[in-house]
Amino acid sequence: MTARPWSDFVRVGLLFGCLGLLGETANGAAPVKPSPAKPAAATQAAATPAAATPAATEPASATAKSADEAAVRQAGRDYVAALEKGDSKALAEIWTADGTFTDSDGHTYKVRESLQKGGGKSLEARQKLAVSDVSIRFVTPDVAIESGTSATGATSHSAAGKERFTAMWVRKEGQWKIDSLRETRVESPVNTGTESLAALNLFSGEWTAEMNHITIHVKATWNPTKRFLRREFTLSDNAKASTGGSQEIGWDPQSESIHSWTFNNDGSTGEGTWSLEGSVWMTLANRYLPDGRKSSAVHVYQFRDKDTLVWKSIHGRIDGEPSPDFEVVFKRVGTTASK
Predict the structure, then answer these.
(1) For the chain, which has fewer Cβ within 10 Å, the N-terminal or C-terminal residue?
(2) Model pTM?
(3) Residue 117 — φ and ψ, nearest 5°?
């Protein structure tokens, strides 16, 4: 068996961090506060009912079971604390001597063995952890099965992820320890960009602007499924249309970003990648002119209010040569943006 990289244990730790949240996530019970450290004998006596009968002949009482569930939750919180401190020794103590972890790719390894091979290096703490669909059941008074879904934030060593997990806790000398953990990757739903596209709604409607004695008119409408915002534009001099074109803005599933494709009446084409930075839209735009030259610019769109749009084109270049920046102020014509 090949030991997994040291950073993998950050991921393991977070899956078990969810166990410390059982009280808050599963049934709304208040978390159990840590108790002061006790000698092993005293801890065992506290965790075992005084008049307990052998597990094989009589199940634990409801009161004892509730106390055991609380103890498992506390063990999970202790695991998170050790992880946040980078305390590999404390982390190892929460696993049994032969405790194993099976990741979502099917690799299984012994946790304590791998931790020892880490040479006592610090662990990288996670910043985010969300747990849902959590349940716990006791197979015997000394064996608990935990299952649920854990979503973890990314670190420098691993990407964010969401897994279904099944963990086995066993009571050893009065202490609850992890004996095995198996996780299964939960495939993320396809990002269709619905929420991102909705933020473009302010652009819909009719707009007009004046620049160097040229009137610019833009009409933006959604397609029936609201997957693309189509902008048709004309530039006219003395009320006579001189040129124009159209632009489609939609979600690009390959880059998982908003993208635009522009087709101008003069034969030039363009495309751009859009992003919302705070309240400002920015587009990294490229355009191919009819003679084959390439132009590029950064387009900045900012709404002063719902009926006033400022468009700035900056850092423009044509065939590598700088081109002037410019600014155009559009005013909405007629009704406001569609809902």
Answers:
(1) C
(2) 0.49
(3) -70, -15
